Automatic annotation (TrEMBL):
S-adenosyl-L-methionine binds at residues 113, 133-138. It is found in: Cytoplasm. Belongs to the RNA methyltransferase TrmD family. The keyword S-adenosyl-L-methionine applies. GO terms for cellular component: cytosol. Homodimer. It catalyses: guanosine(37) in tRNA + S-adenosyl-L-methionine = N(1)-methylguanosine(37) in tRNA + S-adenosyl-L-homocysteine + H(+). Specifically methylates guanosine-37 in various tRNAs. This is tRNA (guanine-N(1)-)-methyltransferase. GO terms for molecular function: tRNA (guanine(37)-N1)-methyltransferase activity. It comes from the Bacteria. NCBIfam families: PRK00026.1, trmD. Residues 1-228 form the tRNA methyltransferase TRMD/TRM10-type domain.
Length: 248
């Protein structure tokens, strides 16, 4: 799959694409990333890409013409068409299910907004989808683009050290959409705290039940909305409901 990233700061992506286990996805070509700077498509000696908003107000707005020229060049370079995604506070919130859909797709053109935003005429004409990381504002869309790329890359075959690792991520359907449980490693005792006895028992059923209860406990405490969604989908067992009732 191929992602074309439109950004005024392509240098931000260098370390991101070269570090960590997800670099395997980029090095192998499973996830191709091309970086495009709209300044390269701006007119004039100053290569201006932003201007003051009509109607007044603070900040600057990204101009439509350099973005349109950049998009034209990307489409000419791609063999297949791709949706244009703008990262914006007004966008749909990116979640695990969305990351899974993207990981199975052919890629996209990712537009990283800056300043006060992008000229609405460009959005109306060219943007297919707006995405957000949550109810907060970033200085630009680059971090959001990296988040999507990372979520997609780690789901590609062979990228993680253990093929089953992502099956136990929080929000994964394999965990019925619950949060993940706590994890422990050596030493067995650290600063007076011991690893839970269930994890040392070697009894697989006890271990799995302990993990299930910790997932239910964490989800009920931190994200009760996920408990409600799992219940509505019929994913909770009678034992789950009994444990949740004990928690109160």
């Amino acid at each position: 799959m191929r992602f074309d990233v439109v950004t005024l700061f392509p240098e931000l992506f260098g370390p991101f694409l070269e570090c960590g286990v997800t670099r395997r996805a980029y090095e192998s070509g499973q996830v191709q990333v091309r970086l495009w700077n709209p300044r390269d498509f701006a007119a004039g000696n100053y290569r201006r890409v932003d201007d003051r908003p009509f109607g007044g107000g603070p900040g600057m707005v990204m101009m439509p013409e350099p973005l349109a020229r950049c998009l034209e060049a990307i489409r000419a370079d791609r063999a297949e068409p791709a949706p244009v995604v703008l990262f914006s506070p007004v966008g749909r919130k990116l979640d695990h299910a969305g990351a899974e859909r993207w990981s199975a797709g052919e890629g996209a053109i990712l537009l990283c907004g800056r300043y006060e935003g992008v000229d609405q005429r460009f959005i109306d004409r060219h943007v297919d989808l707006q995405l957000s990381l949550g109810d907060f504002v970033l200085s630009g869309g680059e971090i959001a683009a990296m988040a999507l790329l990372d979520a997609v890359a780690r789901l590609q075959p062979g990228v993680l050290g253990d093929e089953d690792s992502h099956q136990f991520d929080s929000f994964n359907p394999a965990l019925d959409g619950l949060l993940d449980c706590p994890h422990y490693t050596r030493p067995e005792e650290w600063e007076g705290q011991r690893v839970p006895a269930e994890l040392l028992s070697g009894h697989h059923a006890r271990i799995e039940r302990w993990r299930r209860e910790r997932r239910l406990e964490a989800t009920a405490r931190e994200r009760p909305d996920l408990i409600a969604a799992a219940r509505a989908a019929g994913r909770l067992t009678g034992s789950d409901e009994a444990f949740l009732a004990q928690l109160g």
